[in-house]
Amino acid sequence: MSQDDVWARFPRGWFGIGFSNEFPKGEPKPIRYFSQDLVAYRDDHGQVQVLEAHCPHMGAHFGHGGKVSGSCIVCPFHAWKFGGDGQCVEIPYARKIPPRARVKAWPIREVNGAVLMWNDPDGGAPDFEVPVLPEIGSASWLPWATHRYHIKTHPREIVDNLADKAHFPAVHRTDIDEFGFDTDGVTATQRVRGRAHFGDGKVDPFASTTTYHGPGVLLMRMDGLMQNRMMLLHTPVDAGTLDLRMGVTLKVVGDEKTTAGYVDMYMANLRAGFEDDIRIWEHKVWRHPPLLCEGDGPVGSLRKWYRQFYRPIGRPEGEAQS
Fold first, then answer.
1. What is the mean pLDDT of the chain?
2. C-beta of residue 230 within 8 angstroms of C-beta of residue 251
């Protein structure tokens, strides 16, 4: 298998399919990720389930007219009922359920106010978890302020930024005084101290710690004028596009109303930074290996870490690749 074939596949790991408030109880939601039509629903017990979207009977889409019943979803065409594990549990007009009456189901976690879906092209079970942020749900921190982008790029381009020290001043008008990067199993962490420059001439000294937990979930702690936390979720829609969701929360200073007044400013600044990146991501080409020079940052080390999530189908981790 060539280098390009390995990198072009969808990665293994946890990926965000939405914030928790995007999944009200009892409302099937058609979604599309990893080039597959899916249906997500919060069942009557409060659990989010994700199944293959099309009924194996005659192909109806569960997300368009389907109904939630208990922990199951009911097909809108002939009322076949499927559980959260994908198994058909009832056909209203048949005494016997065909053995192949099932659809694929995906492991789901709801953590930090977001719904995460496990993807593994080899069909493996989750082998790591995303940590819980104690700030989320605390009275000392605001609820997430959120935004979503649909971007024409591959997730590998976004992850590259974690090690790309040299792009900060050129793209984000940020001076970097200290830059550190390390990996540990399924996590990769960037530590930065620097100064952000704004259009009005203001300068914000900051320190941040940013960690990827697998290939699709980023958690960041930033201490500047105010303390904030950010969560970034980017999930492939197909081979050339992805959804990027971001959430920002601020630590309450004084009272909640006063702190909330700063949220729009923080979100605007973060969005401006991402939109600077998006203009590049959507028009660049993938260079592997890249032509690097002194001062670029440990891009090669990051890609070596990232490749563990792209092992070829059926090939055990650690086995030599062609």
1. 91
2. no
